[in-house]
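Retro notes (design track)

What went well: tokenization of the new backbones is finally stable.
What didn't: we kept losing track of which sequence belonged to which structure.
Fix going forward: every design gets posted as structure first, then sequence, in one message. First example under the new rule, 280 residues:
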């Protein structure tokens, strides 16, 4: 009842205030704000014009956050079961389709102005696998290890999302977190697996060049934090290293056990279908 009453109360407060700032909406601005601050401290945004170009995406992230907050007030799910997975794969495929079109029609190392000086369509290759890694010249492990991490993220996000929505609660934020993390990781895996580099095409002149995958990952991470803040059953109180470690191990064991049961269920379904139709 406590969670339901809180949800209804938030709905009443938010109705008629689409653009009103709230903590949940501001969470979606954190990552890009930190990027702007770090770039400014590094002297990469020397002019007021570059600061403006770097800042206007905050409007995009904020409007998306506002739309998601409203959406979350009227439904508990984005989609159910295989439909959600299909949507995630569709988002990853969309990113890959755009990159195929970029490779076919935009020459390498060039850009086409959409809004002159503010937003360009570019064709750049990122060998480091991430615009964030490239922007700050970070040194990460090799491609093989990164691939293992991404594959683990793909399977982990799927089973963790399934575990959470089955045993805890259904939530738009949990679905959006899954969509962003799964689709972004899947698109990354396609790029690095088939091309060996990332095709970046969303260019903020003089600031950075990114892709749809980066937006998906940013949205997924932000939604994950929002879900933690929104769920009344999730405690943010620190219980000490020993207790936190114990809780983490218990949670990990529960997720692994749940995942094994899910895999067994999938196997049984496939075996039944094969018995009915041996040609399959």
């Amino acid at each position: 009842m406590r969670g339901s009453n809180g949800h209804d109360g938030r709905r009443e407060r938010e109705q008629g205030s689409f653009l009103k700032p709230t903590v949940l909406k501001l969470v979606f601005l954190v990552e890009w704000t930190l990027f702007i601050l770090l770039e400014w401290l590094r002297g990469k945004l020397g002019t007021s014009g570059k600061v403006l170009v770097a800042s206007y995406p905050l409007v995009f992230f904020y409007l998306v956050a506002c739309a998601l907050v409203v959406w979350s007030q009227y439904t508990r799910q984005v989609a159910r079961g295989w439909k959600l997975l299909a949507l995630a794969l569709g988002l990853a495929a969309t990113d890959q389709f755009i990159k195929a079109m970029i490779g076919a029609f935009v020459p390498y190392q060039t850009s086409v102005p959409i809004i002159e000086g503010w937003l360009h369509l570019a064709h750049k290759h990122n060998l480091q696998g991430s615009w964030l890694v490239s922007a700050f010249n970070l040194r990460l492990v090799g491609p093989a290890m990164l691939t293992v991490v991404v594959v683990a993220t793909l399977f982990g996000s799927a089973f963790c999302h399934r575990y959470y929505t089955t045993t805890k609660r259904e939530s738009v934020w949990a679905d959006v977190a899954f969509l962003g993390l799964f689709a972004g990781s899947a698109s990354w895996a396609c790029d690095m697996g088939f091309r060996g580099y990332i095709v970046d095409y969303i260019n903020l002149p003089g600031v950075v060049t990114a892709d749809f995958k980066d937006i998906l990952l940013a949205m997924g991470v932000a939604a994950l934090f929002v879900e933690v803040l929104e769920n009344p059953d999730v405690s943010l109180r620190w219980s000490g290293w020993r207790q936190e470690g114990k809780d983490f191990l218990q949670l990990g064991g529960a997720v692994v056990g749940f995942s094994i049961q899910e895999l067994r269920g999938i196997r049984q379904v496939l075996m039944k279908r094969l018995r009915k139709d041996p040609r399959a």
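Added context from the reviewer: The chain has a mean pLDDT of 83.
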